[in-house]
Amino acid sequence: MALNQRKAVRYNDFGRAECEEICPVAGVLGDISVSGCKIHYDAPVDINLENDYEIHLRLSRFISDPLFLMCHPQWQRELEDGAVEIGFVFLRSPDTLKLESYINQLQAEQKSSDLDSYIVQEDSCQFV
User: Fold this and answer.
1) E-strand spans in the chain?
2) Interior CA angle at 98 toward 97 and 100, to 5°?
3) Integer-rounded Cα radius of gyration of the chain
4) pLDDT in tens, 89-120
5) What is the DSSP letter of 47?
């Protein structure tokens, strides 16, 4: 899916995605938005694109407890090394509000780092 067709900004983030129905080993979160995420599995997985899955996301920042999110797979891509990437859309879930709060924090963090890049920094001290 082309990036310009997305409804929400995706943030590169790190986390673990746990769902026994998909794979006994946790997947790795690739990116996340308020509307969905991409998860990478190192091993081949068998997923039904018609089913909904409850995924427990253990995110890298801001939240210590996992998020329980209902997800629906949108696409699946097999990589050359046998690994698989799956794109999920989030459905309304008990932790939707926590997810929105997390995304807002990622957005604020990105805006802060964008502002820092505009600050002029000089190598020498100047006295006025």
Assistant:
1) 11-12, 15-19, 23-32, 36-41, 53-59, 67-78, 84-90
2) 65
3) 18
4) 999 999 999 999 999 999 898 887 655 555 55
5) -
